[in-house]
Amino acid sequence: MPWDVPEPSVHLRALDLPAGDGRRALVVGCGPGRDAEHLAALGYRTTAFDISATAIELARERHPGSPVDYVVADLFDPPPSWRQGFDLVLESNTVQALPAGIRATAITSVGGFVAPGGTLIVLAAATTRLDSDGAGPPWPLTRDEIDAFGSDGLNPVTVDLVAAAGTALPTRWRALFTR
């Protein structure tokens, strides 16, 4: 799997995140858990979910004894208790893997996890080497899709295009929103 890399996202690590101090974090579409483990190491009480039971099982196997709560859950039908329940929400590369017809619903769902005073981090492809033929996933997010995360009381703090030279995703979005 090309997304199964050993380190947390370089774009996540580049952010100067404050210590978690026990605040709640949620990782959307966590896969094997590298980003979730990074947030937990910063002191966040981290919940990480994926629709794939296999991915959750792999995350638990790779991180035995982890404080991260790995959960099988559906972005389109999350537990009601998650609504505005997290101080930090990370959406990294999940929405870009979804077909265009369901992205707006996914974006709304992601934003709904952010608690008052909380922060949403969005990391996603802005371009890919596959753009010319439309193959994918990933399908790059448009600026309008990135801006759509800033709804329902979420306000943009920064929306940046960052380079990822030497990768299949040479230009990436790194966006932060707060509620």
TrEMBL record:
Keyword set includes S-adenosyl-L-methionine: yes
Keywords: Methyltransferase, S-adenosyl-L-methionine, Transferase
Enzyme class: transferase
E.C. no: 2.1.-.-
Signal peptide as annotated in the record: none
Listed GO biological process terms: methylation
GO molecular-function term, one example from the UniProt record: methyltransferase activity
Coiled-coil residue spans: none
Segments forming domain Methyltransferase: 26-118
Protein name: Class I SAM-dependent methyltransferase
